[in-house]
Amino acid sequence: MPAPPSCISTLVDRFEEDVFDPQRRARVRLAVGDKEAWDVVLADGAAAIAPAVARPDAVLTADGQTWEKIAGDVRAGMAAYQSGRLSVRRNLHVGVGFLAATSGATSPGRLRFRMIATRGARLSIMEAGTGPPALAVHGLGGTKGSFLPTVAALASRFRTISVDLPGFGDSDKPIGVRYDARFFADAVVDLLDALALERAHLIGNSLGGRVVLEMGLRHPSRVGRLALLAPSLAWQRERPWLGLLRLTRPELGLVQVTPRWLVEAIVHRLIPGADEGWTAAGVDEFLRAYLTPAGRAAFYAAARQVYLEEPHGEGGFWTRLSALEADALFVWGRHDRIVPIAFARHVEAALPGARHLELDCGHVPQIELPRQTHTALAAFLSEATDRSCDA
């Protein structure tokens, strides 16, 4: 095996298990353009360079100059990833975890990954920053990685934490649980307890937004402010498949034959630009969980609960929403095909005191328009902090 360039050796020598422990043997491929590549094997708390022969868990690709910058500047790895000069494919958790563990950063608020044992499940988190806690909750089929830009953007003012909900990403995937908003909200409470956090601001995208709202309704003493990014809300229109879905069990996903090539072909037809940038990383994360039986069953169960949720009547979502007490900011995408912006008027009727921001984006504002989204989030969440300091 030819000797790797010094920048690659520097990264491997800096590996810190306390920042990222993959929980199992993992292989990270570091590619210099499309010509040279070396693997780094992570096992037993150490990192070692190996030939690029076996199938890697994650592939990190950059040109030689970018790798030199990453080795020479503790902040360069994440900056290169966010700017697109460094790509991370396949397993985002392992790839970004490796970058964090080899950054050389030593500050208390450095990016790190942890597995947290809670009452109900082991939950995988990434966090950075110090200050008031802000917890981010991903959408259906997503992972904590969808909030990597948010963690980076808010870390200067908040201890920003992103979690894989149970059933998704690298968290436990129990079989037979409801995977509805109440189940997920209880899991978030368990996480706050495990982290010894009495209260936190909450940020949620899509399904995560629905979970955040459930937290505000069911556990108001545990939440600060709520930021809802294109939140999934109970359907107002007729649901023609209601009866069939009530009879269909999501556990069928455990036995479903799901060849990777078929799922990838369907996903690439449905999602424009599925091979590019953040979208490609998000698709990789979805496939990583969906192509496992437990992950597939969790996805079906959560999607089923979104469709089945009753909008009105006693206990209906829109009936309950008017009881929300926490300050809330709703961020809507004008081009969102999943949660149309028309939902904003229903929210305004239920919560006349809530704030609204409309952006020229789709369903994932924190990735599609990160600067505008995070500027708004930082200002909104900081108001609560500034007021508490004034008091």
Task: Describe the protein in words.
It is built from 15 helices and 13 strands. With 391 residues, the protein is α/β, with parallel strands linked by helices. The strands form 2 sheets. An 8-stranded mixed sheet has the order 6-7-9-8-10-11-12-13, with helices on both faces. Strands 3-2-1-4-5 form a 5-stranded mixed sheet. The protein is globular, with a radius of gyration of 21 Å.
Distance between the termini: 63 Å
Counting DSSP H or I runs of 4 or more residues, the number of helices is 15
Helix content: 25-40%
Uncertain parts? none
Kindly estimate the percentage of residues that lie in beta strands according to DSSP: 15-25%
Strand order, largest beta sheet = 6-7-9-8-10-11-12-13
Q: What is the CA-based Rg, rounded?
A: 21 Å
Question: In one word, what is the shape?
Answer: globular
Largest sheet: 8 strands, mixed
Q: What's the mean pLDDT score?
A: 88
Number of strands: 13
